[in-house]
From TrEMBL:
Gene3D superfamilies noted in UniProt: 3.40.50.450
Protein name: DNA protecting protein DprA
Native species: Embleya scabrispora
Domain Smf/DprA SLOG residues, every copy: 91-303
Family: Belongs to the DprA/Smf family.
Gene Ontology biological process: DNA-mediated transformation
Length: 383
């Protein structure tokens, strides 16, 4: 990246870290203008300016600083870091060894930092990861597909990333956990806030076996805007996004389109054509670049190593005679299951010379596909 992957050249790294922790409370996620100012001037400089009474530098001079300053002093940074320590978490900033560098694809809209909690290092978990997202009010079909897909991906060594919400998100996390696979929940609230309340136990388990991550400080509550901006992190963190179920107006579609803008693979699982819960997915699948998937192997083919992670080709059950040459297969097709036909009648129906027909019938008899009876030839197994 043009700013050195967040290495803060010439700046006090710990000072920048602390300033970013404070700014994550003052600035809403995805603010590219503020992010650009952080890149140019540094987080510590901007924080000093905000604590002063003058205007902000650069593009920020066109903004009313009161919007940021109103949150100053609401909670001291030491309190946030102490609360983070209480829950066993950590605060990552760009340039840290544990920072997932794929988030830098967001440019100036990348998170100022990430508050994380979990047993799995985030960068390691995100190296081979796929987002599985969809409707909160999903159907039984959607929950089953999401859980099965996530379990298969986890068994294949892929991390399942989702948003920790009800519906498809929860089913995806549970599917990965069911096979003791890694899973990442990207939250739209503070790392210590159990949202949704009904997922308190699920989020605790993700922290024990995977990782929780958010760009919002401890104690922060979710808002509609924060959910929308959370989706860009899910999209950037992973190699591709799979939408399992989504209505025509769905946050899951926002994640998918953010993924497409970032050059990530977009995939969708089809549902019943009359189901409103799948209407958004079907619309998405009509867009250029979207790929229809039905199983984990097909997802891995899209996001894995080109040429190596190919999905096995599906085929129907094999039938006797599938491997026959066309000329012998044509003879077999004429031989009846019921009743019998003479060699001459079979030759006539197949348009084959009588001598060749007899040789081919002998081949079929040797393969135990036809029998010769007193009335002529018939297929073996017929009544």
């Amino acid at each position: 990246m043009p700013w050195g992957d967040g290495d803060f050249p010439g700046r006090d790294v710990e000072g920048e870290r602390g300033a970013r922790a404070v700014l994550s409370r003052l600035v809403e996620p995805g603010d590219a203008v503020f992010g650009r100012a952080v890149r140019v001037y540094g987080a510590a400089r901007l924080l000093r300016d905000l604590r002063g009474h003058g205007p902000l530098p650069g593009e920020l001079a066109r903004r009313d600083p009161a919007g940021y300053r109103v949150r100053l002093g609401a909670r001291e940074p030491d309190e946030d870091l102490a609360r983070l320590a209480e829950v066993g978490g950590s605060f990552l900033v760009p340039g840290d060894p544990g920072w997932p560098t794929q988030l830098d694809d967001l440019g100036d809209a990348r998170p100022l930092g990430l508050w994380t909690r979990g047993a799995t290092p985030l960068r390691l978990a995100a190296l081979r990861s796929v987002a599985v997202v969809g409707a909160r009010a999903c159907t039984e079909y959607g929950a089953h597909v999401a859980g099965t897909l996530a379990a298969e991906l986890a068994e294949a060594g892929w991390t399942v990333v989702s948003g920790g919400a009800y519906g498809v998100d929860g089913a995806a996390h549970r599917g990965a956990l069911a096979v003791r696979g890694p899973t990442v929940a990207v939250l739209a609230c503070g790392i210590d806030v159990n949202y949704p309340r009904g997922h308190e136990r699920l989020l605790a388990r993700i922290a024990e076996e995977g990782v929780l991550v958010t760009e919002l400080p401890p104690g922060a509550h979710p808002t509609r805007y924060r959910f929308i901006e959370r989706n860009r992190v899910i999209a950037a963190l992973t190699r591709g996004t799979v939408v399992v179920e989504a209505a025509l107006r769905s946050g899951a579609l926002v994640s998918a389109r953010r993924a497409a803008l970032l050059g990530r693979q977009v995939m969708g699982v089809p549902g019943p054509i009359g189901s409103p819960s799948s209407a958004g997915v079907h619309m998405l699948l009509r867009e250029p670049g979207s790929v229809l998937v039905t199983r984990a192997a097909e997802v891995i083919e899209q996001v894995g190593v080109i040429g190596d992670d190919l999905a096995p080709v599906l085929a129907g059950p094999s039938r006797p005679g599938d491997d026959l040459p066309p000329e012998i297969r044509r003879i077999l097709d004429v031989v009846p299951w019921r009743g019998a036909l003479s060699t001459a009648a079979i030759a006539h129906e197949a348009g084959s010379a009588p001598a060749a027909t007899r040789r081919r019938l002998d081949v079929l008899a040797a393969r135990e596909l036809v029998d010769r009876t007193s009335k002529g030839w018939r297929r073996r197994g017929g009544a």
